[in-house]
Amino acid sequence: MADGTSGESGKKNAYDASNITVLSGLDAVRKRPSMYIGSTGPRGLHHLVYEVIDNSIDEALAGFCTEVSVTINKDGSVTVIDNGRGIPVGEHPTMKMSALQVVMTKLHAGGKFDKDSYRVSGGLHGVGISCVNALSKELEVWVNRDGMQHYQKYARGEPMTPVTQIGAIGTSGTTIRFYPDSDIFDSIEFSFDVLSARLRELAFLNKGLKINIVDERTDKRHDFQYEGGIATFVEHLNKNQNVLHEVIRFEKEKEGNIVEIAFQYNDGYAEKVFSFANNINTIEGGFHLSGFKGAITKVLNDFAGKLNLLDKDVKLAGEDVREGLVAVISVKVQNPQFEGQTKTKLGNYELKGIVESVVGERLKNLFNENPKLARDVISKSVMAAKAREAARKARDLARRKSVLDSGSLPGKLADCSSKDPSVSEIYIVEGDSAGGSAKQGRNREFQAILPLKGKILNVEKARLDKVMKSEEIVTLVTALGCGIADEFNIEKLRYHKVIIMTDADVDGAHIRTLLLTLLYRYMKPLIENHHIYIAQPPLFRVKAGKTSKYVYTEEEKDLAVKELGDKSYVQRYKGLGEMNPEQLWDTTMNPDNRTLLLIKEEDAVEADQIFTILMGDAVEPRRKFIEDNANLVTNLDV
Ligand code: 0RA
User: Fold this and answer.
1) CA-CA distance, 92 to 174, in Å (whole number)?
2) DSSP readout, 576-607?
3) pTM for the structure as a whole
4) According to the model, what pLDDT value does residue 20 have?
5) Sign of the dihedral through C-alpha 488, 600, 329, 373
6) Domain boundaries in the chain?
7) Model pLDDT, residue 12
8) Which fold has domain 32-224?
9) 220 C-alpha vs ligand 1 centroid, how far in Å?
10) CB 319 within 8 A of CB 384
11) Which of 31, 130, 309, 446 has the largest count of CB atoms under 10 Å?
């Protein structure tokens, strides 16, 4: 049947004139896929799965589905199964075809036709299953509904079969199996880890919902179900920290909006506040987040005054009360307004008041009932305020000193002559000797060089006042020009490319991680705005007679050795210092042939965990992380 039917004859059978607009709608998706799913790279590819799952989660939120299961099949396709009501299969009242086919072929039909149904997902992903269908080489759907199992198959969005009853069945639910179109995507290989991380997040955000993922290619499997919901999420985020108290959780339904809040302080310094609206990570924040922050700041200040914990005229600032705070704010909103550059900022103003009043009232009650808790939390915020004041003094001092020293820029910085940040680059280089080569090799027109002495302070274990006393860090912050922490201002960034260049050995990797920790914890917008890069120096030079080749991986080396023949001599570069200035320019700094790795934050929760594990106090999780990831290390040079 399906496979043998040509597109043309299939079309003739399945369509009448009224369906032509529907088809051209999906054509638009195939012509400009990025407009619908963001990109045709890995992110867009995984987006397909999220789109399907969102519909299953809607069923769960509406109270009809308890379990969602995702399988990456051996052939590379993905199957999503839910036990919801099943997509309706009867004839659609106006479209004159089965409702299933409307959902599968009509753009933005999303799922529910009925506006009153509680569709809270969407926003970022709300492009509809039809987009997944349009971008799949093949898609099959099974619907269990009204005692029958129904089946339909599509190819690139076009029906290959009519909706067919294939047997009687006692359960309800939907199964969708799709195989992404390699004509559309750069790669069609799904990542178990990427999907699993999102599914775990969805399980946290939708308490009680059972979600599992199986990878048939490797037999990996994860099962998620959290009766504690986001409270368990907070426990998970804090699992490698010393916590000050049990997780605090508030929940409230108001005017059709559901607000859930869970938080817990640890004895560390980082702030980890994650906000979600309709299961979407609102990385740009929004009114639910500002309501939460406002309420915490107010209640802690009020109690600090009542308990006489603050000197007169001193106030706790927002960042003081969020030191060591791990929080998850999750709202489910009937008509979410997503705004901002990446459509991840919640624009519903009413959520500010709702969240503010829930947190304000409940936290006040909790502190009244439990003064020790209030005292523990507020004492920490007071220490943070004192440290902030000390840091401000240290910064002022550093500023004054650097002005006196050398007309404001650090002496170690070899600046570029361009004053245009958009074309300027700064190389942060490990060690003075590599710094020297880089200074001689660079194009001084637009490339600045800042050599660092070696290992900078681990900021994961230090407060801002201590951070500001570190000479290397102050030098770096001054060179970048954009300040740090609450004084950070991206407008003042002096170089739009900040390139970390360290040796390809263990020390180099350590220095790189320390620098990334500093940037992640104190200058995060530099990462969010894609200003941070890692230079890729070559690992080997393969030479035969007068020809030589620089190679960057083991595989490239093997190829080059084959190419250049038996007489080649392989030179292993251990450090940047082994290259002369000209070589460093040719291989690593010349924009025409260098490779730079752009640092992006794909998953805020995962990134935070990794920094905590790698740089934090707890040793055991770090040992385990290194053990688990040892097989990913391709080049270890101790
Ligand atoms: C349209 C209407 C209804 C449910 C769905 C679509 C639906 C879509 C998907 C996609 C994956 N799983 C799904 N489950 C349900 C409401 C059905 C009703 O009113 O009975």
Assistant:
1) 18
2) GGGS-HHHHIIIII-TTT--EEEP--S-HHHH
3) 0.84
4) 37
5) negative
6) 32-224, 230-390, 409-537+581-632, 540-572
7) 33
8) Heat Shock Protein 90 (3.30.565)
9) 29
10) yes
11) 130
Find out whether the beta carbon of 174 lies less than 6 Å from any atom of ligand 1. yes
Query: What are the residue ranges in the chain where pLDDT is below 50?
Result: 1-23, 110-118, 122-123, 403-407, 637-638
Who's near 171: CB < 8 A, 6+ residues apart?
Answer: 83, 144
Distance 85 CA to ligand 1 centre (A): 6
User: Is 430 a known active-site residue?
Assistant: yes
Distance in Å, CA 331 to ligand 1 centroid: 22
In CATH, 409-537+581-632 is 3.40.50.670: yes
Distance from the Cα of residue 478 to its chain's centroid:
28
Active site residue 563: no
Q: Confirm whether 503 is a catalytic residue.
A: yes
What separation in angstroms does the CA of 518 have from each of 250, 463, 626?
33, 12, 21
Q: How far is CA 524 from the centre of its chain?
A: 13
> 230-390, which class in CATH?
alpha beta
CA distance 435 to 450: 7
* Ligand 1 center–CA 12 separation, angstroms: 28
| Residue whose CB lies within 8 A of the most ligand 1 atoms, among 130, 174, 178, 209, for a mutation test | 174
Structure tokens at 513: 């991680």
Per-residue pLDDT, 603: 79
Closest CA to 507 of 563, 558, 444, 574: 574
16 catalytic residue (yes or no) = no
Query: Which amino acid would we find at residue 17?
Result: A
User: Considering 507, 578, 603, 617, which one is annotated as catalytic?
Assistant: 507
Neighbours of 604 (CB within 10 A): 14
